[in-house]
Write a structure and sequence with these properties.
Layout: E1 2-5, E2 10-14, E3 18-24, E4 30-37, E5 89-92, E6 102-111, E7 126-134, E8 139-147, E9 153-162, E10 168-180, E11 185-193, E12 196-204, E13 208-214, E14 223-231, E15 241-246, E16 252-258, E17 264-270, E18 277-279, E19 284-286, E20 290-295, H1 298-314, H2 317-320, E21 327-329, H3 331-334, H4 340-353, E22 357-360, H5 390-398, E23 402-407, E24 411-413, H6 417-421, E25 440-442, H7 448-464, E26 469-472, H8 494-512, E27 517-520, H9 530-533, E28 538-540, H10 547-557, E29 566-571, H11 584-591, E30 595-599, H12 607-629, E31 631-636, E32 643-649, E33 655-662, E34 673-674, E35 684-687, E36 692-695, H13 696-702, E37 704-705, E38 713-721
Parallel strand pairs: 21-22, 21-30, 22-23, 23-26, 26-27, 27-28, 28-29, 29-30
Antiparallel strand pairs: 1-2, 2-3, 3-4, 5-10, 6-7, 7-8, 8-9, 9-19, 9-20, 10-17, 10-18, 11-12, 11-14, 13-16, 14-15, 15-20, 16-17, 24-25, 31-32, 32-33, 33-38, 34-37, 35-36, 35-38
Helix pairs in contact: 4-5, 7-8, 10-11, 11-12
The chain binds alpha-D-galactopyranose (GLA).
């Protein structure tokens, strides 16, 4: 609900259990009076910092009080007018001046979300759009706030328009700034690397700032575009937290800064390293959206709010709650060494086990025998696949299975026909040696001719064959940020224009092929972000399929994203990434905590393992509604304990699915109790595996015994309310 109080010039934005109160200071500055738990529509202007003047805090020329932007909580930090914290925008005018003074002009409140063009955008809600103007440069900024009555997430972004007579250059254009009153916080971030994405780490926020981000042209494995402030007394199940996540997939930054007074600023958006954007008169720059989440019930509730928000407003509506394909992917089964017979044999094995889709991964096109060649040549390699794709597709169809295929649309190999024809289509200068990564270059997606070509090639494959699923991969980061098509003064626009090109291409393909299910991937989970999830209902969480490592990665990922967005496969042991052997049951249990699938040579499984696959898939169908719609409760943290355990509880609390793993067997460790969470205390639940019926409060307060299991032994409990 958005309410504007004319008398005090205050906006009250209230979601399910939070409020954000904005105030137009008499001198025109847009300040924040409160962000936190819900408040009434009371006059909060007693928080006006004017009366609290501090030496060395400059006063802007048009105020007659002691008001200083240095001390106020500001809605979009500016530069050069006394707010010395990290600004949200940095505008250079023709004469080189950089100071900006933003003042309120007008506002409007409307149903629905702002139109962001090709950028990912959350659906629905109610929007407050406040227009402020830089009185020094005539640049206008529309600050959008979209909120939803059923959610504790507030979506923000900024639209910057040059209303002056001469061009300006943006050196920074963040999506938001959130200034919180003085408080003690820790900063949770999700760092990592390839095969080890989204490792949670919390460190106290002292004075000064913590800046995280990616300058890789992709949101990255190394740091996820997510950050949470964790209140001093907050933890998993209680206390105040504020989470932010960007709906953006390119280079990004998030900053948390504790000021001289102890107030805390969180801001961020597109990474300003190597960024500039020229705005001629009348031109507009739209920043990506950020989702800001408030929780007064700890990180657990924050995660559930993000999950509900992403499912309800970001993930593709058509697919978000629909049953997902249960697939077998041939990558770890064959790598590049497949042919028609091997793929058909995989389908023969898969169909009777209940697998419904065969996905043909890398290597089906051009002369791609290894990862040195062929990217860009999206023509079927008939030498490898005699007769093309159709015989394999028909073979699948005859067995009641669908067919999916892998693309890496943004890439080009030096050894490819495409590169030989268009060496200038790769990013960087064609006459200067460029960095390779996985032996490949990146296509210049800022160019319309390049995206048109890729669209044409992919459309050709998708329209000529019965393909129900596409895996969209991206296996390297960008180095030489340069396009031969952009003028010198626009090279700083390259990185963001690249993302706009990618988003535009995905959009176009999805409009042309609305019945194709797209899964995202980037060397595993290298672009696992709210931007990609607005197109791809699920994302390959990590190339690491080791059940123990995966449990940790999925745990970390769950801080900001729903289970149904995580694609999780059972693979063979010794595991290809870690060499570890884990029980087949555990692998299935961990992979059931997401969009499940298989990534191994089913023909090499024993009869007993095949029977387990069948059971795992039957179980998956039984619990899929929980994975797609349920609430996740993190119970035992595998980073801190000798155990991993989570529960997924249905919204009506009538069902729950618990998955756990004892990490190492320990002698005498027989009295570890697992206390469940999220159940209804008064309801009685039957725990299928234990043959017991217990009340919710008993299960949550006394708990159940951690099963006696060996190393990496997994277990599941199905709970059903007693009728
Ligand atoms: C990436 C993906 C894998 C697989 C390979 C193919 O690493 O994450 O799943 O598709 O590429 O080259």
């Amino acid at each position: 609900m958005i309410v504007y109080d004319r008398k005090t010039r205050t906006f009250f934005l209230s979601g399910k259990s939070f409020s954000c109160v904005l105030w137009v200071h008499p001198a025109g500055y847009l300040c924040n009076l409160h962000f936190g738990g819900r408040v009434g529509e009371d006059d909060l202007t007693y928080f006006d910092p004017s009366a609290r003047g501090l030496s060395f805090s400059p006063v802007p020329p048009d105020t007659d009080s002691e008001f200083s932007l240095d001390l106020s909580c500001n809605e979009y930090g500016s530069f050069g007018q006394g707010d010395f914290r990290s600004p949200s925008v940095l505008i250079v005018r023709e004469n080189g001046e950089r100071a900006s003074r933003f003042q309120y002009v007008s506002h409007k409140i409307y149903q629905g979300a702002p139109n962001l063009g090709v950028l990912p955008a959350a659906r629905g809600g109610e929007t407050l759009a406040v227009t402020v103007k830089d009185v020094l440069s005539d640049v206008g900024i529309v600050l959008n706030y979209t909120l939803y009555e059923d959610s504790d997430v507030l979506v923000r972004n900024a639209e910057i328009v040059n209303r002056g007579n001469s061009p300006v250059t943006l050196l920074r254009a963040y999506s938001f700034c959130l200034d919180l009153a003085a408080g003690e916080y820790g900063v949770l971030r999700l760092h990592g690397r390839h095969n080890m994405e989204r490792t949670p780490e919390i460190a106290p926020l002292g004075h000064g700032s913590v800046k995280i981000g990616s300058a890789r042209g992709a949101s990255s494995h190394q740091m996820n575009p997510f950050l949470a402030l964790v209140g001093k007394n907050a933890g998993e199940d209680g206390g105040e937290c504020v989470g932010v996540e960007l709906l953006y997939s390119g280079s990004w930054t998030l900053e948390a800064e504790k000021s001289q007074t102890g107030s805390v600023r969180v801001c961020g958006g597109i990474n300003d390293l190597n960024f500039s954007w020229k705005l001629h008169t009348g031109e507009r720059f739209v920043t990506p959206q950020v989702a800001v989440c408030y929780s007064d019930r700890g990180l657990g509730e924050m995660s559930r709010s993000f999950a509900d928000f992403l499912r309800g407003h970001v993930l593709p509506e058509k697919y978000v709650y629909a049953p997902r394909p249960v697939l077998v992917n041939n990558w770890e089964a064959t790598y590049f060494g497949f042919d028609r017979e091997k793929l058909c044999a995989l389908a023969d094995e898969a169909a009777p086990l209940g697998i419904d889709t065969l996905v043909l991964d890398d290597g089906w096109f051009g002369k791609r025998e290894d990862d040195f060649t062929g990217l860009g040549d999206w023509f079927v390699n008939e030498k490898k696949l005699a007769g093309g794709l159709d015989p394999v597709i028909s073979h699948c169809k005859e067995r009641g299975m669908k067919f999916g295929i892998w693309f890496e649309p943004e890439m080009i190999s030096e050894d490819s026909d495409l590169y030989r024809a268009h060496p200038d289509w790769a990013i960087g200068r064609a006459d200067v040696p460029r960095c390779k990564s996985r032996h490949q270059y990146v296509l210049d997606m800022t160019r319309g001719d390049v995206t048109d070509h890729i669209f044409a090639r992919m459309s050709d494959i998708l329209s000529r064959h019965e393909i129900s699923y596409v895996k969209w991969d991206m296996n390297r980061h960008i180095t030489e940020f340069y396009s031969s098509r952009l003028p010198a003064e626009r090279q700083g626009e390259f990185s963001h224009r690249y993302m706009l090109g990618v988003y535009g291409l995905i959009r176009r393909l999805q409009e042309a092929f609305p019945n194709v299910f797209f899964e995202g991937c980037s060397g595993g989970g290298g672009r696992f972000d709210g931007g990609m999830l607005s197109f791809f209902p699920q994302f390959w969480t990590s190339d690491d399929t080791d059940a123990y490592e995966r449990a940790k990665i999925q745990w970390g990922t769950s801080y900001g994203y729903p289970l149904s967005a995580m694609s999780c496969h059972v693979s063979s042991c010794p595991n290809h990434q870690t060499g570890r052997t884990t029980p087949f049951f555990t692998r299935g249990a961990v992979a059931s905590l997401g969009a499940t699938g298989y990534e191994l040579d089913l023909g090499k499984l024993s009869a007993e393992e095949k029977a387990q696959v069948k059971e795992q898939i039957e179980n998956y169908h039984e619990i899929e509604a929980l994975i797609l719609r349920g609430d996740l409760y993190r119970i035992a943290d595998p980073y801190e304990e000798n155990c991993f355990c989570v529960a997924v509880v249905s919204k009506d609390k009538s069902r729950a699915y618990v998955v756990g793993m004892r990490i190492h067997a320990m002698p005498g460790d027989f009295d570890r109790r697992i206390r469940l969470k999220g159940l209804c205390p008064e309801k009685e639940y039957t725990v299928k595996e234990l043959g017991r019926t217990l009340r919710g409060d008993t299960l949550m307060n006394a708990g159940l015994l951690l099963p006696r299991l060996g190393d990496f032994g997994g277990w599941v409990w199905h709970l059903q309310e007693k009728s």
